[in-house]
Design a protein that fits this description.
2 copies of one chain form a homodimer.
Chain A: H1 2-31, H2 38-56, H3 59-70, H4 77-93, H5 98-121, H6 124-145, H7 153-161, H8 167-190, H9 206-220, E1 227-231, E2 237-239, E3 245-249, H10 259-275, H11 278-281, H12 292-306, H13 310-324, H14 333-339, H15 354-373, H16 381-393, H17 419-438, H18 442-447, H19 452-461, H20 471-479, H21 486-500
Helix pairs in contact in A: 1-2, 1-3, 2-5, 3-4, 5-6, 6-7, 8-15, 8-21, 9-10, 9-13, 10-12, 12-17, 13-14, 15-16, 15-17, 17-21
Chain lengths: 502, 502
């Protein structure tokens, strides 16, 4: 028995290694690949993903999983969970023909390149045929996966990002949350008292922003011996296996502290990746993240609950002042705290504040659900984006660059991914209540630049389990109750009401 | 028939794509990989090279090659040459067991990492066990390849870098060349007239050196849309397939123009890679370089025959002055020309001048031949290096960092590679005589920063053929005679005699 499991792990480690190589190719494409390399890169991704898929779905792996299941009693709870998740992955993967996987990989690579150019030129027509193509392939993938009766095609895609979630469940969370958020946003944005944005327009050179970003990474515990930070158009985090986790961020913004949000967001993902037990379990579900919702809970927690807190800035402001001197020498803690917590209806999701952010997600959730079902034709996307954006956020979108071309996800066929951001916000707020009870002086620690207890708590309670527990179960174990919207709403109310005097 | 060839190309393209991915992993390891990633990277290289080797040696490829050979008449000369080279590669590759290839790939990756640390710490003992291990594996590889009767194990390794060459042939070239070079070096170094080194000690920030390097790359025709330039401990060039050729260089030197040598050297390799017809022939020998000797002829030509010429500096000096202002504002063309043509007995091969360089190579050729045969035990390498160095170059080596730890090659098991540098110098000088006759105003062009005619000549006469001709045949075709030491000796005499008044 343990022989079968050991052999299974060996096979799975090869699959994970091939996947890690593919991630490196993707990282390189975004960071350092010369423009002319796009065609060859697509060929590389196509070939590699075909090889990985063949190995992942090999009958040998199927046999080994069955052997492990047959003698489940010989495994402890953790290994049983590992086999359970391997079974799930295997059944999902074997539903996809290799040819579709390879075509998707190649098209993703090319389509992402097309998106990059279309976004730079603000030209939706350039991207539309690629979106059409990738949606077609994504639909085919969803059809291969299938979905429960009473469900919809979109559910099949959710399975990749948030195992077990359905569009209806998400709707059931989003529908009541939306009017509460809209009401809060209206109260804040219509308040006569608007905290001034003292940081606005203060730009500092990119190398200083980078240096400050590294200061913060070191302090919060992202290990730079096993990771790095680069610059891309769209920030992301990639874990390539044991000892290699890479973050990217971007600096071309008009406010000198704003890039830190992206850096901390990706660092949250990175600290999760570094906290997974890859050194011993790489290749098994025990070294993988639970779901994207849980992954986002980590990134949004570091970005917002830490990175936009007063306690954090008590420590970080002097650090930033040293790096940026003399650009922000004159600013007080109150000014900076108000400045990084501006609530404003705006166009770009990744720059949105905590109160409006989830409205951006709800927009995308609705649109991509309609794109996949076919209710919304690709050609109507810009118009429909703009119409619903006006409804949800009250603004007229002036360009597709600030509208439907802003995010990389759809160019990759990542449909079903967006709602996990809001799930992440909800999980983050709920975890935070538990953490605050477990570490009563957390604010005091953060104000001294001490993040070790927080990181250890996350390592112990969330990271080290890998996929031992599903998201809902993990939430119940950690917080003692199922996921609820209350902690997020409470947190937003408590934070913003005093700032806006409402 | 043409069906068999087309199918063969498709198979070979997959192999080449896997090889390109491996090259990217190697490039990343040297440029951006965090230190902690070394272990996982070795696993990736091991797996990838095993997969590539299995495909490369698949019976299917063997069958297709045989089919193409059987109906050779249906192929034109070029495709016949392509099949001839595929047969050679296949026969060579099938001699190696996959398990050895994978172990070599993994050990190379780890051993290179060990070398990097050993070099930084100047600690040969740290590297010795790795060198022992990689030499053992390299010997096993050579034994698998085999060699002609009357030859030696080293010949088998040469086959990978300089097809058809033998240790005896190289000895026959090196043995008479060495005393002539030594005599020239002695005359120059002992001359009472020593051209002053006005550049010595003038350092400029790395970003300016990088900008100047890019200026030169653009001018000489290295395409930055399909290539890039980064920084590593040991400069190299990697071609990853169509549209992606990457150079690295290093800047941490005491003289501000010296890094340009590395940059131009690697650019010479890069211009060759970019000149190969990869867009149409990728995967076939027609899109591959003839041999390392020919590859080095390109790098050494741009580095020395162009990059250390008076004509080149007539154009390049004002460009450098603008980038480095005011650091070298005061220097004249004569001063710079003398400065970049210092002949000096020194320790580091990649920084050696044109006159002493080949003595460095002869040292390595002798040592690695003895390492492979077992005549020289690894533990005696530092002592033996230092003893022979004293004989050839008259200096006492003060540290292994400046001695046997300076080059990356052996850490990779690249034994048989070094002599191709001197072959490259010989080919370069001989090609240059032909080029100078074909483009009579080449000096005038270079002095205006015009390198297009030179690049076109190289593209037409050397690059576009891929492996259509073997090195000796190409030399005969291009220059009308077999390789000879005369052009190099004539060039060195003519250039250095006036500078040193001898």
């Amino acid at each position: 028995m343990s022989n079968a499991y050991a052999e299974l792990v060996k096979e799975q480690k090869d699959v994970a290694t091939l996947t890690a190589i593919g991630s490196l190719l993707g990282w390189d494409q975004e960071t350092y690949m010369p423009p002319g390399g796009a065609g060859a890169r697509a060929d590389q991704q196509e070939l590699l993903s075909a090889i990985a898929h063949q190995r992942k779905t090999s009958p040998r792996i199927g046999d080994l999983i069955s052997q492990c299941e047959a003698s489940n009693g010989a495994l402890d709870d953790t290994l049983r969970a590992s086999v359970r998740e391997m079974r799930r992955d295997y059944d999902l993967a074997t539903k996809l023909p290799t040819e579709l996987v390879a075509e998707l990989a190649k098209t993703q690579s090319l389509s992402q390149d097309a998106w990059k150019h279309a976004r730079a030129k603000d030209d939706f027509a350039m991207f539309a045929p690629w979106l059409e193509k990738i949606l077609g392939l994504t639909r085919r993938k969803a059809e291969c996966y299938g979905f429960a009766s009473g469900g919809e095609l979109y559910d099949a895609l959710l399975e990749e990002y948030e195992p077990g979630a359905t569009a209806k469940q998400i709707e059931a969370i989003f529908n009541p949350l939306q009017p509460r958020l809209s009401a809060l946003v209206a109260r804040l944005c219509d308040s006569p008292r608007r905290p001034p944005d003292a940081l606005k327009g203060i730009a500092v050179p990119q190398d200083r922003q980078h240096a400050f970003g590294l200061d913060v990474l070191k302090a919060i515990g992202f290990d730079l011996e096993t990771g790095r930070l680069d610059t891309t158009a769209h920030p992301f985090c990639s874990g390539f296996g044991p000892g290699d986790t890479r973050l990217t961020t971007r600096y071309n913004t008009s406010s000198c502290l704003e890039p830190l949000s992206s850096t901390m967001h990706e660092a949250g993902h990175g600290i999760y990746e570094q906290g997974l037990p890859k050194a011993t379990q790489f290749g098994t579900p025990l070294a993988e993240a639970v779901s994207l919702g849980i992954h986002e809970s980590q990134s949004r927690m570091w970005e917002n609950l830490v990175g936009r807190s007063r306690a954090f800035w008590m420590w970080a402001l002097p650090v930033a002042k040293r790096r940026f001197a003399p650009a922000i020498d004159h600013l007080t803690l109150d000014q900076v705290y108000a400045s990084v917590n501006q609530v404003e209806r705006s166009f770009i999701r990744v720059e949105a504040d905590e109160a409006t952010y989830n409205l951006h997600i709800m927009l995308r959730f609705g649109l991509e659900r309609d794109l996949i079902s076919g209710r919304l034709p690709v050609k109507d996307l810009p118009g429909e984006w703009n119409r619903r954006f006006k409804q949800l956020l009250g603004l007229d979108v002036p360009s597709n660059k600030l509208g439907c071309l802003q995010d990389v996800h759809w160019s990759f066929g990542l449909v079903g991914y967006f709602p996990t951001y809001t799930l992440g916000n909800l999980y983050a707020a709920q975890f935070w209540q538990t953490i605050s009870a477990a570490i009563p002086d957390l604010d005091a620690q953060m104000s001294r630049g001490e993040f070790g207890a927080l990181k250890t708590w996350l390592n112990e309670n969330i990271h080290r389990h890998g996929r031992r527990y599903r998201a809902g179960e993990l939430c119940q174990r950690v917080t003692g109750r199922p996921l609820s919207a209350e902690p997020l709403m409470e947190y937003l109310e408590r934070k913003y009401a005093p700032l806006y005097g409402v």
